[in-house]
Amino acid sequence: AAPAAAPAAAPTAAAAALTAAAPAAGNRGETRVKMTRMRQTVARRLKEAQNTYAMLTTFQECDMTELMALRARHKEEFEKKHGCRLGFMSAFVKAATHALQEVPAVNAVIDDATQEVVYKDYCDVSVAVASPKGLVVPVLRNTEAMSFKQVEEAIAGYANKAKNNQLAMEDMAGGTFTISNGGVFGSLYGTPIINMPQAAILGMHATKMRAVVDPKTGQVVARPMMYLALTYDHRLIDGREAVTFLKSVANKIEDPGRLLLDL
Fold it and tell me: Is the CB of residue 197 less than 8 Å from the CB of residue 175?
């Protein structure tokens, strides 16, 4: 007869201690929530843009010193006279509008049906705004004819409508170019996705104090710097045009007087 199996060895003290220290199983449940129609639309359009466009992103750093000083000097008087706050978005909208007029390809679109490039004689700037249901992009129409006050009023109005879920489809229809400001959430760097059927999108980011070399003195100084990103459709826009556009925006922000003098 076969010998009887030896009894299993008793667990060692170390193994028993490990077993006792093992954490109890936590809650591993799941919650399923139906995607809203807006979220479904956003998801579909973002993926469609990735699949259709030859997207490329170029970057530029921007010294915010002069614009911040300008705002600090005039924000109280601006609000008292116009009844709206003076932010940075109006300067970026106007700077981008001037740059769009300087580099028309960034304001154009490709008509895939006819294989034609359509150049727009007007600038309709979509501004990305967070809402309870997701990201929305209401449009500022004919920004080439808008003042700083009108831009600030329009953005404030859209932000209030988005907060109360009152944006209409007409508010978001169209647009020739988009500005997205991830900096309000603290984003330092990012590559925005183009809002179809537009050809480019400008990404603003957080302003951070960084050590930079002053081009006038050669000294290392602390300056409030922002990274700007331009994602563009390389099928339509060449690198030279994209960099020229982004550098023009940065120059106008670094020296706001260029906006006044149309430089």
Answer: no
CB-based burial, 213-230: b 16+ in 10 Å, e otherwise: eeeeeeeeeebbbbbbbb
> In angstroms, how far is the first alpha carbon of the chain from the final one?
103
- What is the average pLDDT score of the chain? 87
pLDDT of residue 241: 95
In this structure, are residues 140 and 151 in contact, taking their beta carbons and an 8 Å threshold? yes
Distance between CA atoms of 36 and 163, rounded to whole angstroms? Answer: 16
101 pLDDT more than 80: yes
- The catalytic residues are 234, 238
Greatest CA span in the chain, whole angstroms? 107
Tell which residue, 109, 111, 110, 107, has the closest CA to residue 121.
Answer: 107
User: 81: part of which helix (H) or strand (E)?
Assistant: helix 65-82
Strands 55-63 and 139-140: unpaired
- At residue 208, φ and ψ (nearest 5 deg) are -130, 145
Structure tokens at 199: 């050809």
- The three-class DSSP label of residue 221 is strand
Report d(CA 119, CA 105) in Å as an integer.
Answer: 7
